Every structure is written in C-alpha cells, then in structure tokens.
Amino acid sequence: MNRIFLLCACLFVFAGCAKQPVIANLNPRIGEQPAGIYADPQTVAVIGKDSRKTADVVAYLSDEPPTGLANLTAPQEVIADRLTAGLRSQGLRVDPSSPVHLEFEINELLVRVSRPKMLYKAEGKTFITLTVENRGTVFTKTYKREASKESARRPELPKLEEMLNSQLAEIVSMVLQDQEVRSLIARR
User: Fold this and answer.
1) How far is CA 114 from CA 150, 162, 185, in A?
2) pLDDT tens digits for range 27-42
3) Which domain holds residue 138?
C-alpha cells in the first residue's frame, strides 16, 4: 500500500514540475453545411499532405533553448477530417478511388511566440494550397491567414490553439463554400 502511495506522490510531484504543456491539440470547429449541394451519387477523394519542415504547431522562441510543440493528431488528418465531414454534409460520398481529387498541402501552420522587448508577441500563420482535379481539369488555389497578439504575460497554450483553430476553420469553410471548387467537383 505504501508503494502505491509513494508512486502516486512521485507522479504528482514530477507532473507538477513541467513548466508548459508538451503537446498541442488543434480542433477547428466548422459550421453546419447546407445539404444537397451535390447531386447523388457523386464522389470525391480527399488527400492531405504536410510539407512543413517540422511537425511543431507552436514555437516558443524566447525559451532557452527554443521549445516546439507538435499537435496531438497530424494536422493533415485534422483538416482532412473536417473537409470530409463538410463535403459529406453537402451530399458527396468520400471514396479514395474517385476520379475527382481534392488535395491540400500544408505549407505553414505555426504560432511563433517571442519576446522582443517587454511584451510577448504571438504570431500565427496558416498557409494551405488546395488542388482540385476532375478528369484532367485542374484548379489550384492558396489560402493564407495570419494573426498576431501581444500580451504582458506568456500566452497560454489554449489561446495559441484558438488562434490556429480559427485560421483553420476559416480556411476549411472557404474551401467548402468556394463556387469554383464546387463547380469543378460537380463537373461530370
């Protein structure tokens, strides 16, 4: 009994020593999508790539040494999940063997936290390239979002996640509402 108590006490002590979380959890919220946008039985394949040099979504540059936090789930999986759910709501079936491909590439997805002077500065950037291909016709579009905030205290991880979540939600919503994307997907 004493060993269990001692083990639990050690875990609480060491867990309390961490000065910050070690992993982020992006979870963008996408609004309801209108049904019936696409005629039945249209299909699409959703393909995601992450071409960033590092898996980090948060970088604390003012730490010694600088600290990076990766996301709990691969960002391309999070985005693909939101796009897939939105396209299904609009009436599409998602099928990897579909001749229609909706492919996105994450070029940048990062919040950099620095302290150049007295204030902390958090700069979030999201840059995604979307390519839609339907039987030889290709459409490419880039989506960029940026935000920055200054604060006297070191920004908490939930605030930084919120910054990226809002950028991702906005980009996914723009893709789902884009008339050029819709018309190319619907083209037979």
Assistant:
1) 10, 18, 42
2) 999 999 999 999 878 9
3) 23-186
> How many domains does the chain divide into?
1
Report whether the peptide linkage leading into residue 21 is cis, meaning its omega lies within 30 degrees of zero: no
Helix, strand, coil percent content, the chain, rounded in steps of 5:
30, 35, 35
Output the pTM of the full model: 0.86
**Residue 167: partners with Cβ closer than 8 Å, 6 or more residues away:** 124, 126, 145, 146, 147
Residue entry with tokens 């960002």? 75
Residue 55 covered by a domain: yes
CA distance 18 to 34: 45
CATH number, domain containing residue 167: 3.30.160.150
Contact 111, 121 (CB under 8 A): no
Among the listed residues 102, 80, 99, the one whose alpha carbon sits nearest the alpha carbon of residue 188: 99
d(CA 20, CA 34): 40
> Are the beta carbons of 58 and 91 closer than 8 angstroms?
no
Q: Are 71 and 17 in contact (CB under 8 A)?
A: no
Per-residue pLDDT of 10-64, as tens digits, reads: 444 444 444 567 899 999 999 999 999 998 789 999 999 999 999 999 999 988 8
